[in-house]
Amino acid sequence: MRFISKLMVVLAALVLSACADRVEVPPAHVGKILTKNGYKPETVPPSKFRLDMCLYYCDKLVTLAIADFGHREQFKLFMPKDQLNMSFDVRMTGAINGEMIDNIFDRIPPSNSNISVSHVYNTYAQPVIRDVVRRVVAKYSINEIASSREALSQELFAEVDVALRGTPIVVKRLGLADVQFPKVVTEAKERAAERRELIEQEKAQFEIQKIQMERDLEREKMNRAIAREKAMGQKEVNDLLAKSVTDKYLAYRTLEVLDRMAESENKVFVPVEALGTIGLQQAVFGSEIKHVAKKSR
Questions:
Q1: What is the structure's pLDDT at 94?
Q2: What pLDDT score was predicted for residue 55?
Q3: Are 90 and 174 in contact, with CB atoms under 8 Å apart?
Q4: Nearby residues of 121 by Cβ (< 8 Å), 6 or more positions away
Q5: Distance of alpha carbon 249 from alpha carbon 254, whole angstroms
Q6: Own/partner pairs for 287-295, CB < 8 Å, 24+ apart?
Q7: What percent of the chain has pLDDT over 90?
Q8: Alpha-carbon distance 21 to 19, whole Å?
């Protein structure tokens, strides 16, 4: 009886030890069952299940992330055309090549039952990307890079995409970022920007002065037009006087002046011979001008 009890305890322990582990392949992952003879051929999609019961060697679940991932590579590159060092980043979005999953499980050892995407990237993609980026960027000058960053990013993407074909990594996006130009180049660009700003200010000031000068010119034109109109009016008056003041009319007006002088308390006796003098004619003519001016009003 005692023997039977001990045997039952041993059997119970064996049954408990033979219970398989409950495992999970999380979302955006795939898994494979690692047996004592290697991986099983089928790939396990995201799911929860129990491994097969075991006594001596138990199977294990190894997972691999297949979600898209982002990565940044930092560079400090000597630019042959400028003989200067330039720092920049290359940022990319990549993914695991679905056709290479079996190859990854066969060639990358797991760590804590997981094959990390960074391990795959560092093994297959990083050396290729760094080599391609250095080769392509070194072809250009710093000024060419500054003025054509978008075109250069497209070229880098195309070159890296070709270089990674047949590897477990697929590049989806790639481009330059955080470009740090040499200090001497940055200072030169700042000085150029300052010069452009001064030129713009000078242009603005010139436009202001141009407007002021145009306004002054218009004012002068108006003043000349006014003066011309006044001169034409005076000429018309002079022409009218020249036509209306004849010798007979001047003699008539002379008599009127003498008549008014006779009526004035300030009488002045003028000899008959003095009637033809220039002084008297000027007095008469001046009076006539005033008379005509009053009529014109």
A1: 96
A2: 78
A3: yes
A4: 69, 71, 94, 169
A5: 8
A6: 287/253, 287/257, 288/241, 288/245, 288/250, 288/253, 289/241, 292/237, 292/240, 292/241, 292/244, 293/237
A7: 48
A8: 7
With a cut of 60, say whether residue 270 has pLDDT above it. no
Residue type, position 37, single letter: N
Q: How far, in Å, CA of 11 to CA of 16, rounded?
A: 9
Residue 21 tokens, joined: 């582990």
The one-letter code for the residue type at 42 is E
Those residues with Cβ within 8 angstroms of residue 22's Cβ, 6 or more apart along the chain or in another chain = 48, 49, 50
> Would you mind telling me the total number of residues written for the chain in this entry?
297
pLDDT band at 266 (very low <50, low <70, confident <90, very high): low
Cα separation, 209 vs 205, whole angstroms: 6
Give the mean model confidence (pLDDT) for residues 52-67.
Answer: 91
Which tens digit of pLDDT belongs to each residue from 100-146? 999 999 999 999 999 999 999 999 999 999 999 999 999 999 989 98
Helix (H) or strand (E) holding 245: none
Q: Would you say 95 and 161 are in contact if contact means Cβ atoms under 8 Å apart? A: no
- Residue 11: its pLDDT value, please? 47
**Token duo for residue 101:** 């999953």
Check whether 217 has a pLDDT greater than 90.
Answer: no
* Contact status, residue 32 vs residue 40, Cβ threshold 8 Å: yes
- For 69-97, the DSSP string reads EEEEEEEEEEETTTTEEEEEEEEEEEEE-
Ranges of H-type helices in 180-246:
183-244
Residue 129 CA from chain centroid, whole number: 29
- Between CA 230 and CA 211 the distance in angstroms is 29
> Residue 273 carries which side chain, given as an amino acid letter?
E
